[in-house]
């Protein structure tokens, strides 16, 4: 799923200063762009990425560095869920390796009957 994501940036405190204080989603990947995490920033992308940097711990790669890209959106949680569902469909139901929370239940489409 390729939307209007930014280019990939190294996940460093210096690069984080260039990120807008807007709502959106972000993806974290390793050097070869293997997706590790999909995050939602309901208030501020810069704050969410800063928090990710500060609490990275288990998400840090063994070798190399991390990269991120972002997409501004008014519905970050919905887009995050859509991206994760798409990832799961392509990877046999598995979440990205650093994703710690399970997927929420998919929203069922409701159809109205014409009477």
What does this structure look like?
- This protein is of the alpha+beta class.
- The chain has a single domain (9-90), classed as GIY-YIG endonuclease (3-Layer(aba) Sandwich).
- It has helices at residues 13-16, 45-54, 76-90; strands at 9-10, 24-29, 35-41, 67-72.
- Strands 1-4-2-3 form a four-stranded antiparallel beta sheet, with helices on both faces.
- Strand 2 (24-29) and strand 3 (35-41) form a beta hairpin.
- The radius of gyration is 15 Å and the shape is globular.
- The chain starts with 8 loop residues before the first strand and ends in a 25-residue tail after the last helix.
- The model has no long low-confidence stretch (mean pLDDT 83).
Summarize the structure.
The chain has 115 residues and is α+β, with helices and mostly antiparallel strands.
């Amino acid at each position: 799923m390729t939307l209007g994501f930014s280019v990939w940036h190294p996940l460093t405190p210096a690069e984080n200063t260039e990120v807008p204080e807007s709502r959106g989603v972000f993806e974290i990947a390793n050097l070869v762009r293997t997706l590790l995490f999909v995050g939602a920033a309901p208030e501020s992308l810069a704050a969410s990425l800063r928090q990710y940097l500060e609490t990275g711990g288990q998400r840090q790669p063994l070798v190399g560095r991390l990269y991120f890209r972002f997409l501004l959106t008014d519905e970050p949680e919905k887009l995050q869920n859509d991206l994760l569902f798409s990832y799961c469909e392509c990877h046999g139901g598995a979440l990205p390796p650093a994703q710690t929370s399970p997927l929420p239940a998919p929203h069922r489409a409701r159809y109205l009957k014409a009477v």
